[in-house]
Every structure is written in C-alpha cells, then in structure tokens.
Amino acid sequence: MMETSNDTNKTYNKNDHKNRHLNTELSLPLLARQLSLSVYLPVVLMSVCNSSFILMLPLYVLELDGQAGIAALVFSLCGLGNIVADIPAGYAASRAGSKFTMLLGIMLLMLTGLGASQASSGLHLGVAAFALGTGMSVWFMGRLVHITKLVPLGHRGKALATMAGLQRMGGFIGPVVSGIIASNFGFEIVFLCLAGLITLPFLLILVFVKRGQKTTKVSSALPLLKILPSVFRAHQKVFATAGIAMLLLTMLRAIRQLMVPLWGDFIGLDTAQIGYIVGIAAIIDMSMFPVAGFVMDKWGRKPVATACLGVLTLGLVSIPLTADAFALTAAALLAGCGNGLGSGINMTLGTDFSSASNRGEFLGVWRLMSDAGSFVGPLCISMIANLFLLTGAFLFAGIIGIAGISIIQLAVRETLVTKRAEP
Description:
This protein is mostly helical. The protein has a single domain (about 25-210, about 225-420), classed as Up-down Bundle (Growth Hormone, Chain: A). Helices cover about 85% and strands about 0% of the residues. It contains 18 helices and no strands. The protein has helices spanning about 5-25, 30-65, 70-95, 100-115, 120-150, 155-185, 185-195, 200-210, 225-235, 235-265, 270-285, 290-300, 300-320, 325-340, 345-355, 360-385, 390-410, 415-420. α4 (about 100-115) runs antiparallel to α5. The protein is globular and about 50 Å long.
C-alpha cells in the first residue's frame, strides 16, 4: 500500500466524503451542461491547434533541414517546455486561479503560431516547439484544476475521459485540415491560421469561466522553489510507482506522435497523406473514451492503464513492418486504439492521488513527472535515429511498454477501490 502524510490523508478523506455526497446530487447531463462552454468546447478547439502544431513542426523541420534526427530533437523541445512550466503552472493555478492560468497558456500558444510562421531554420522551430510545450503545460494545468474543483469523485473518471475524448476529436480534425492547408498553401499559412483559431477558446474562457477561489491560501502556500522537494517527500511512493508508470506512458505517446509522421516520410508519403493517416487514427482514438471512462469508474484505473500500454505498444512495434500508406494506417489505427483506451488515465490518477490542500502544487509535480516522458522519449528517438537505424526506435518503444505494464500491475495500488473503502 502507498502512503502519504497524515495531514494529507485527513484532508483526502474529508473531501472524499464530501464528494460522495455530491455524487448523489449531480447527474452526468447536468455536469455536461456546466462544463460544455467553460471546458469541453475550448478543449476541442485547443486540441485542433495542439495536434496541428505537433504534426506540422517535425514535418516543417524535415522540409527545412531534411534530417529525422534533427526533427526528433526539435520535437523533444516541446517536452522540455512542458517540464519547465509544470511546477510554475501549478503554482499559478493555486495562487492566481485556474482562469488566469488557462488564459496565460492560450496566449503562449498564440505566440507560438505567430513565431513558427516566421521561422526559417530548425533552430527557430526549436524555439517555437519549446514555447508550444510551455503553453500546453500552462493550459493543461489550469483546466485540470478547474475541472477537479467542479466534478465530484464518482463522476471524475467519466468527466476526464470525456475531456480526453474531445481532445482526440480535435486530434482528428487538426491533422487532416492542417495537412491539406500545408500541401496547398505552405506551412507558414498553417501556423498563421492556428494563431487566429486560438483566439476562440481564449474568448470562451474569458466569458464563461468564473473567477474561482484559489486552491491554496496565500498564507499556507509553499514557496515556488520548495514545491518540488516538499511534494516529493510527502508523496514519494506515489511518484516512485504510479508517477514512473505515467512517465513511461507519456514517452510512448510522444513516440507515437513523432514516429508516425517520420515513418510516413521515410516510406515516401506526402504531407497530406500523413495528415490523413494521423486523422484517421484519431477517429478510433477518440471513440475509446466512453469505454475508458466506464471501466475506470466501474472496475478501476489499473485495467485501463494496462490495456492502454499493451495495445499502444503493440501498435508501435508493428509500424516498422509497414511499407505503404494502407499498412501504416492499420498500424496507426492499432496504436490509436491503445492510446484511446487510456483516455484520461493520467489526469484521473493525478486527481485521485491529490488532496484539496496544495492541489495545484501536487498536480504540477505530477505533470512534471509524466511530462518528463514527452521530452525524454523524442530525445532518445533522436539519438537512436542518429546513431542507428530509425527502426531501432520501435524496439525501444517495446521495452518501454513492457516496463510500464509491469509497474502498473506490480506496484501501483487501485485508487478507485481504496477510496470507496475509506470511511
């Protein structure tokens, strides 16, 4: 069994009891209406933009510099931006509120689009990738704290899985549309269009999200430089097991986002074809979120995490066996199915392990732990592609997947069962 500090457990149980009371009063349709304009629609729009950025950046690097290793290195800087911003974003969410944090993240992504449209080298796109990761982290933290405060425990798996499913809907629309625009008008126009589109979720958040209470009182908030060691000490077993498992899962997800377009370019597909493949894979990805949410709230988090890691790994290791668009689409569909089976699992586990006191700080460190994978995964791919063959990256992905499944099964406790059992 994992342990946290006594103070954390007291707060945890008190809020858990409160959440169980709320479960009897709120219905899913009511929650959906409450979240539709403040969370769900902005999530779809932001996902369209994020997925387009993630696809277009490595392909634009290939056009400018022509090396897969450099494209992977630039892509890894997005993960580095995540890591750098995670704890400050959690701190901002606790001190300034979730609305301010979400708006700040959106503005950073708007600047990313404008900057990438003016890029003329891989170095410039590396700066844009770092800004993209920073903005995504700040936006994610703000919305996660916002939805955690609004949704009671018994509905949290479904609500977060729904949000993850809507992200995947945007992940279908973004690559297809941006691929068509890039093929016909160029990458610069794509990035300018994205900068314009991002104004819509900014206005939605500005109008429909109330300025809520801060999750931490100023008098009790941890100083910024003390957040990491303090939270790690209080939850060290959680981070040493579940945190590492989510880090490995994030590595696999980042590798999937990177390797499908890189392998498509390797076998001679054009930008529009790659965009269609990524978009088609996103269809099955987003169709899995009702299954993921139901299983998480019915049978627990561990079955979802295990299925996600297993199917995603199988899809990735099948990619180097493909040599045309049809075969790559089949492999990408399998990987998308696995990714979709884990809709919301990272967010759900993070909110499960968090407590009402210092929630923003905990989630910031949780995100730091998992987001390290979005930096380390592509960085390893860059090294493998430069030193060995591109196919070696998929063997690396297989090893990561097996390690993640082992940790989930052997070391991570089931938070749903444990929470229901508490008095």
